[in-house]
Amino acid sequence: MTALPPLETRRVLGVDAAVYSANRICAHPECAEPVPDRGHHIFPRSQITNGKYFVQAWDADGKEMFAHPIPHVTGLCREHHDAVERHEAWIKYEDGEFVWYDRCEGDDGSGTLHFSEVFSFENDGVHGVWRRRGPLDPQPAGREKTRKPKRKRLKGDDLAKRKTVTIKLPESVDGQDWEDLLAEAEAVEQAQPDTQYEQWRGGIAKGKLLVAVLERFTGRAG
Question: I need a labelling partner for 85 at 20 to 30 A (CA). Which of 17, 104, 125, 193 fits?
Fold first, then answer.
């Protein structure tokens, strides 16, 4: 499906302007996941008739709605991009910024938007109740998030598939200390009679070395 348009007006066109690099961390206000592709067009391409990164809109009287064309391409993680495409979420333009809403049928609590108009571009009429999550962070054409939420912990199959980790050194250890420790650990590992990494193989990749040292320390080796 095509994402819901952020404005009620049908009169929106993409305009010529410089193409910018989209943010690399998801623009959902509470997400810290990386962006896998080049960017999401908030105003659907089918509505603006092209893939331009900036748009202008006109109201029912033919007056321009923006003082100047606005950027509308933003980076979203796969989960939130799919939510927008499935109409489980809606990016709405209001008060000069793009705001994220989640669909929550039957929820009349505070912070909800009652949406009664019908949008009918490439999808059927849409009604529902939407909960406001907050402005996109960053807004289109922005690069860095102002608020950086923690990434969610991986579980199950996602955890099993992880092949990279990040290590933060203690304050008392600097980068040179770390390299020296790795060199010493490598020498100790290669001196072990049961090592898998003989001297002739050259240096041990850091990931393999750390696993070898931890397995030996915990008794898993062998």
Answer: 17
Q: Which residues of the chain have pLDDT under 70?
A: 105-128, 149-152, 199-202, 222
Largest CA distance in the chain: 84
Task: Phi first, then psi: give them for residue 186, nearest 5 degrees.
Answer: -65, -45
Tell me, rounded to whole angstroms, the distance of Cα 162 from its chain centroid: 17
Hey, where are the domains in the chain?
12-152, 164-218
Burial, 35: exposed, middle or buried (Cβ in 10 Å; 0-12, 13-18, 19+)?
A: buried
Q: Which helix (H) or strand (E) holds 185?
A: helix 175-191
81 close to 113: Cβ distance less than 8 angstroms:
no
Strand partners, 114: 129
User: Residue 99: left if φ>0, alpha if ψ -120 to 50, beta else—which one?
Assistant: beta
pTM above 0.85? no
| 3-class secondary structure, 102 | strand
Q: Closest Cα to residue 42, out of 109, 82, 92, 89?
A: 92
State how far the Cα of 5 lies from the Cα of 74, in Å rounded to an integer: 14
Smallest CA-to-CA distance from 165 within 213, 203, 206, 202 is with 206
**In the β-sheet with 89-94, what is the strand arrangement from edge to edge?**
89-94, 97-103, 128-135, 112-115
**Integer Cα distance of 103 and 148 in angstroms:** 24
